[in-house]
UniProtKB/TrEMBL annotation:
Pfam families: C8, TIL_OTOGL_Mucin, VWD. SMART domains: C8. GO terms for cellular component: extracellular matrix; extracellular space. The keyword Nucleus does not apply. This is VWFD domain-containing protein. PANTHER family: EXTRACELLULAR MATRIX GLYCOPROTEIN RELATED (PTHR11339), MUCIN-2 (PTHR11339:SF371). The keyword Transcription does not apply. It comes from the Eukaryota. Keywords: Disulfide bond, Glycoprotein. Residues 1-95 form the VWFD domain. The lineage of its organism: Eukaryota, Metazoa, Chordata, Craniata, Vertebrata. It comes from Periophthalmus magnuspinnatus.
Length: 263
C-alpha cells in the first residue's frame, strides 16, 4: 500500500482518501514506514507491506476504511482536513493552518495561464486514462498548484502536478508518454558523453526491474510504477542486458532516500 503526499499538499491515505492540506510545519505522516521515497522536491511516498498493522498520522490508519481516516492525534473523528492536519503537528509551537485559500484568488493574473496549461490533463494526451482515473480532481490540483508557484520554479509546480496524474494513470495500468521537448522535458542527453547514446528516458516500466543494486531484478517489497519528475527513470543498455537507474536517483549519482525503520 502507498500513501502519497504530492506537490507538498495533496495527500492520498493508505485507505484511499484524498484531501488537500497546505501546512507549514512538520507533521506525522505515519508512525511507521517500510520505505519512504522522496523526489527531493515536493512529493513523498510511504510504502507499507499489504498486511501491515494499523498506523496513524496524515496517511490515515490503514484499516481498509477511508471514511475514518480523519482521526486526530487526540483520537477524535473529524470532517475538516484542516482540523485533522493541524492535530498531527510534530511541534505544538508551530502555528495552526487557519484556512485553505485558493491560490488563484490570491494570484488572479496566473489563473488563465494555469487553466490553459493544466488542460493537458483533461485533453487528448491523457484520453486513454480518463476512464481509469477521473481527471477532474487532478486538473483542479494542477490549477491550484500552478497558481501557487509565484516565482522561479513556475514549471516545476505545473510539471509535478501533471506528473501526479501521469503517475496515477501508470498505477492504473495506463502509461502516457506526455513529456515533450516543450512540456516538462527530461534532459537525458545531458548525461550522455560526446557521441554516446547510452541513457534514455522511459515513462513506463514494470514495478520491479533490474538495477545496478538489484541485478537479478527480484523485489521483496513492491515498488509502485514510477514516471516523470519523481523518478527520472533512465535506461542503460549494455549489450544484451538492460539496467535501470535506481528509483528516484539520477543516473545512480545519488541514492534513493529509503529509510528503514529500526523497529
Ligand atoms: Ca481508515
Amino acid at each position: 500500500a502507498t500513501c502519497a503526499v504530492e506537490e507538498g499538499s495533496h495527500i492520498t491515505t493508505f485507505d484511499g482518501k484524498t484531501y488537500t492540506f497546505h501546512g507549514g510545519c512538520f507533521y506525522t505522516l505515519s508512525d511507521i514506514g517500510v520505505a519512504v521515497m522522496w523526489d527531493r522536491k515536493t512529493t513523498v511516498r510511504v510504502l507499507l507491506e499489504p498486511k501491515h498493522g494499523v498506523i496513524c498520522g496524515l496517511c490515515g490508519d490503514f484499516d481498509g476504511d477511508a471514511r475514518n481516516d480523519f482521526t486526530t492525534q487526540g483520537n477524535l473523528l473529524v470532517s475538516s482536513a484542516i482540523e485533522f492536519g493541524n492535530s498531527w503537528k510534530v511541534h505544538s509551537s508551530c502555528p495552526d493552518v487557519e484556512e485553505n485559500i485558493h491560490p488563484c484568488t490570491v494570484a488572479p493574473n496566473r489563473e488563465h495561464w494555469a487553466k490553459l496549461m493544466c488542460s493537458i490533463i483533461k485533453g487528448e494526451t491523457f484520453k486513454d486514462c480518463h476512464q481509469k482515473v477521473p481527471p477532474q480532481e487532478y486538473y483542479e490540483n494542477c490549477v491550484r498548484d500552478s497558481c501557487a508557484c509565484d516565482s522561479g520554479g513556475d514549471c516545476e509546480c505545473y510539471c509535478s502536478a501533471v506528473a501526479a496524474y501521469a503517475q496515477a494513470c501508470n498505477e492504473a495500468g495506463v502509461c502516457v508518454a506526455w513529456r515533450t521537448p516543450e512540456i516538462c522535458p527530461v534532459f537525458c542527453d545531458y548525461y550522455n558523453g560526446p557521441g554516446e547514446c547510452i541513457w534514455h528516458y522511459s515513462p513506463c516500466h514494470t514495478p520491479c526491474y533490474k538495477t545496478c543494486l538489484n541485478p537479478e531484478g527480484i523485489c521483496s517489497s513492491p515498488l509502485p510504477n514510477l514516471e516523470g519528475n519523481e523518478s527520472r527513470i533512465l535506461i542503460r543498455l549494455t549489450g544484451t542486458q538492460t539496467f535501470y537507474s535506481e528509483p528516484n536517483s539520477i543516473l545512480g549519482l545519488s541514492q534513493i532516500p529509503i529509510f528503514h525503520p529500526s523497529h
